[in-house]
């Protein structure tokens, strides 16, 4: 009898773990347990009858690096190549990104002019920030808040405006609390390696490549900045699920895990709402705090570490307008916390992916992101936040910042509670202690997903691939 692996959590991490387990030379028996009614986690897309697609979670995936190449290889194996919607390097959504500062939109500097002359919202040419980085001594602390790191290397203005906005866009988080070592490891390593972030990045180690496919070669040739799928990002999760069922993997929704216990023979007993199942190994794709709630008492040291990995809530407001024109063309704009703490930014969905606009009258689709680390102070308890208030706030932002006066013809409000983990100062030590506890106790338990080593879709897939490789004793 092959061993049984229970994968807990049916988001992209859990589905990817099942995908790699199914492809092992001697695959185990695999059971996926998902608490909700659907698979896919934060990959959520709404498709209307006229073909319009609204994304409520991630709206695009970057193709770069080993992780990006491996994800594209997975897409190829799933037969989704024909559904890819790429954003090439010369596209406005690749070239143009904006900041909303001082009540106005400002294009982020690009090219030589942005380096040599002051470009609003910056009061000095960015060349001087580069010079500062080249001359500043290397840091000596084992970890540092992102804001402090950026200020030390590039100056206060870059930290307050550009880096603050970036952290709100990527993590919906506060750069004064987040860890540079865990959130931007490439920048941390670059400084340690060459004393300068810019030199370290320019002279960095030779780039590795993942499993090459025709798709990844095309992405490199066309310099894609990101890609999506014709049916929306949720179709990636649906394709994964459809590929797993014929391979004998059992996918169970409405199956929340209540408790994990070890049998005297070392196997796990998983208590569900409607009974129990037994497994030789558990792969947890649950958020850290959710896993902490179901661990046995003897794993309290592990639960304690997991509880110290917080997550923030984000309100995602999709808006569709008819008969309007955006004042600028690009990917979207971010808003620094000093400008408006409650508003993270606005994505111009129709620019990057006009294929998702549907077959009806010409429209403009936008997504307004609200809250994050500032959710409670701005809107109160995420579980009780008023959709009407969030919609009103989003419409006001679009009116004030983009000049779109009419009411939207379509709107969807979703509040994603605790959706983005926050890698606060010392996160790397927490993850090291977690790994050490699992090894010392010889627990047949693997932890994957956004809580530990990267919040992007690529990172989640990569964490699943690595965990399955370790479990099966060979790379996937």
In short:
With about 475 residues, the chain is of the alpha/beta class. It has helices spanning about 10-20, 65-75, 90-95, 110-115, 125-135, 145-155, 155-170, 180-185, 185-195, 195-200, 215-220, 235-245, 290-295, 300-305, 350, 375-380, 385-400, 425-440, 455-470, and strands spanning about 5-10, 30-35, 45, 55, 85, 100, 105, 225-230, 250, 255-260, 270, 275-280, 280-285, 310-320, 330-335, 345, 365-370, 410-420, 445.
Neighbour order of strands in the largest sheet: 7-6-15-16-17-14-18
Determine the structural class based on helices, strands and strand pairing: alpha/beta
Could you tell me the radius of gyration in angstroms?
Answer: 23 Å
Number of helices: 19
- Proportion in helices: 25-40%
**In total, how many beta strands?**
19
**Uncertain runs:** none
Oligomer: single chain
Shape type:
globular
Overall pLDDT? 95
Share of β-strand residues: 15-25%
Main β-sheet description = 7 strands, mixed
Alpha carbon gap, first and last residue? 22 Å
Structural notes for this entry:
This protein is of the alpha/beta class and 476 residues long. The protein contains 19 helices and 19 strands. The chain has helices at 12-22, 65-77, 92-95, 112-116, 126-135, 146-154, 156-171, 180-183, 185-194, 197-202, 214-221, 234-244, 288-294, 300-307, 349-352, 375-379, 387-402, 427-440, 457-472; strands at 4-8, 29-33, 45-47, 53-55, 84-87, 98-101, 104-107, 226-229, 250-252, 257-262, 268-272, 275-279, 281-284, 311-322, 332-334, 343-347, 363-372, 410-421, 445-447. α1 (12-22) packs parallel to α19 (457-472), α6 (146-154) packs antiparallel against α7 and α14 packs antiparallel against α18 (427-440). The longest helix is centred in the middle third of the chain and has 16 residues, at 156-171. The protein is globular and about 70 Å long. It starts with a strand and ends with a helix.
